[in-house]
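Please check this one:

***
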Amino acid sequence: MAAMRVDGTPTRTIWPLANADAVEIIDQTALPHEYRVLRLASLEEAAQAICSMQVRGAPLIGVTAAYGVALAMAQGDDDASLLTAVDRLAATRPTAVNLRWALARMRRCLLPLAPSTRAEAAWQEAARIADEDVEQCRQIGKHGLQLLSRRAGECGRLAIMTHCNAGWLATVDHGTALAPVYAAFEAGIDVHVWVSETRPRNQGLLTAWELAQHGVPHTLHADNAAGLLLARGDIDAVIVGADRIAANGDVANKIGTYLKALAAYLKALAAAAAAVPFYVAAPRSTIDFSCPSGAAIPIEERAADELRVMHGRDAAGARGQLQQLPCSEAIVNPAFDVTPAKLVNTLITERGCCPASHDGLLALYPEERHG
């Protein structure tokens, strides 16, 4: 059963339909104004859901891609169809390594099999990846709770700043950065979440929506208010997710993460100022041991209209969009930035917590040590 709830009903972000070669997802482009479920019945529909951010969050992108391969096998199960499906899905989002990780796993599982057995095996493997994501996120919550409990003991409260959305909407269930927050709330810790709006896609609105569904106290703030909130001591800790963690501990996450890490670091350097720990929570599928540092992480450039056009509801409650910039305006829209490992206090994974460093990661994942 899912741990997170929508209107009190346990809900995952993606689920296969019984007796049908299709999956359903929560359309995250409709939130927070409307809760809408979409049916994905083909490879192209799965790819479009990832591209358009109807599903988003590195772990959920990976799971959706796995189900996308399963959908493709229902359309054609020969080698060419399998490899074409993997390539099509791999091209949807370049930064989140979970996508590539899930596709490589599906390829390894299916390619040695007889074509006639691939469709059923694909559904089974995709379901395993989804269930493993749920368990890994639950473990992240468990290990992160230990950190947050100690911090709450030091502060007598727990005011946590987060960025983007790394809650259950970004995974199959529980979430990454928000998993410890939910665990702390359920443990009775006095927790309040400061939610960065995260422009231009405003994923912070999704965080606020799911926190409200779970009853967790929270406050939404403008991205540019983060430095002030940190500087004046309103925040006890910052916790974010990740789209890729390099082998040296550098972290790629939603654009704006680096500025929050830097603000927390500068507060620690200020005279007589208490340090604000900066935590990053992510599962194994987000760690890229083949990537030496953040400098090697590709940064996705998204469409200029994400800045030009705003979406919302008008005074009558109708959904619509407003163009705030002319089409002639030059725009750059990088979707991610890289936070250097030295600004990250602790990485929280399903295997425990470690320093953001090559040695720290290898201590948790010794099987990745070569030579």
In short: The two ends are 42 Å apart (CA to CA). The chain has a mean pLDDT of 94. The longest strand covers residues 191-196.
